[in-house]
Amino acid sequence: MALPEWQWLYGKPAIRGQLKASPEDFMVVEDLGYEADGEGEHLLVRVRKTGCNTRFVADALAKFAGIHPRDVSFAGMKDRYAVTEQTICLRLPGKETPDFSAFSLEGCEILHLARHKRKLRTGALAGNAFRLVLRQISDRAALEERLLRVQNGGAPNYFGQQRFGFQGNNLEQAKRWASNEIRVRERSKRSFLLSAARSVMFNQVVSDRLAQQGNLTQAITGDALQLTGRGSWFVATEEELPQLQARIDNNELRITAPLPGSGEWGSRDAALAFEQQSLADSLAFIQLLERERVEAARRAMLVIPRDLHWNWRDDATLELSFWLPAGSFATSIVRELFEQEGNDADIAE
């Protein structure tokens, strides 16, 4: 299933370049945002992996520890074609900490072990730190200009390609599921397909908002606004708009778009009408999410990378580092910089 060409915040870049020429060109360090308790029935295993996905490593750790895979959890999936550092949680009630000195898995290294009282749940992280090497940049001066714009104004908080599967396959299957052409019984697969469906709708609303306004920082009546870095939201009334707009301009607040599902979307008035119009052709996905009782949520439309720094190795090779909050995609930042050549695999959360 072909994906739409969503709008760019600074216009479609004419620059070309390459991301992920090798796994070492895409490095990610997961930031949980807290330290381990030092005691408890859970074991936090900090790993660095190259060339293997998160589920594969989690299953290998479960097998070594002699526990069921369902007793292993992690905050988010990390891409296979990258060097990634993350924490995997093993539930070991009443058990001693295994001796992992004998654990061996190609492409995986255990960095640290620590006991913890609580299970590590999906999404329970502060964010991720990225270090990317961008190669074969066609126009150094133009990329410098776009880097400065992203540094100051951020980028659309789009869900990346990984969310939709190879050539949009997750979306195609979600579409067939929604129309009752197929049944999906496997729990993990159901989760992937439902996530793809609501993610593509979020991206569509953000893109349509950009097409209409040219930015993601101009509030309208009924917008659901978040305190920057927080999950909860409140609705902007017409009377409050001038004061709220000043807080948006000061980066205290972010305008959100819907992650559709059961229950109210959260916006009101003009904002809700806009979102409903934007998703008028997505009724099948909306009904699927409601049928599966996926609760509606909100997500900031704009993401501004923190601690964005870059260094040119030569005129065509750039080293780029930044930090993003949980759930945001590094490739959505890169998308605003240049059109990618070669490997377009993605990483998230």
Question: What secondary-structure arrangement, pairings included, does this model have?
Answer:
Layout: E1 16-19, E2 26-31, E3 42-50, H1 54-65, E4 72-74, E5 83-91, E6 108-116, E7 127-135, H2 140-153, E8 155-156, H3 169-178, H4 187-213, E9 224-227, E10 233-235, H5 241-249, E11 253-259, H6 269-278, H7 283-291, E12 297-300, E13 302-303, E14 306-314, E15 317-325, H8 330-335, E16 339-341
Parallel strand pairs: 1-16, 2-5
Antiparallel strand pairs: 1-7, 2-7, 3-5, 3-6, 4-5, 7-15, 8-13, 9-10, 9-11, 11-12, 14-15
Mean pLDDT, rounded to whole units? 94
Helix/strand order: EEEHEEEEHEHHEEHEHHEEEEHE
The number of helical runs is 8
Helix content: 25-40%
Largest sheet: 10 strands, mixed
The rounded distance between the terminal residues' Cα atoms is: 24 Å
Structural class: alpha+beta
- Return Rg in Å: 21 Å
Low-confidence stretches: 343-349
Q: How large is the share of residues in beta strands?
A: 25-35%
| Mass-distribution shape | globular
Total strands? 16
Comma- or semicolon-separated keywords:
globular; 10-stranded mixed β-sheet; alpha+beta; 26% strand; single chain; disordered C terminus; 349 residues
Short structural description:
28% of the residues lie in helices and 26% in strands.
Mind explaining what this structure looks like?
The protein is an alpha+beta fold and 349 residues long. Helices cover 28% and strands 26% of the residues. It has eight helices and 16 strands. The strands form three sheets. Strands 1, 2, 3, 4, 5, 6, 7, 14, 15 and 16 form a ten-stranded mixed sheet that branches. It has a four-stranded antiparallel sheet with strand order 10-9-11-12. The protein has a two-stranded antiparallel ribbon with strand order 8-13. α3 (169-178) packs across α4 and α3 packs across α7 (283-291). The protein starts with 15 loop residues before the first strand and ends in an 8-residue tail after the last strand.
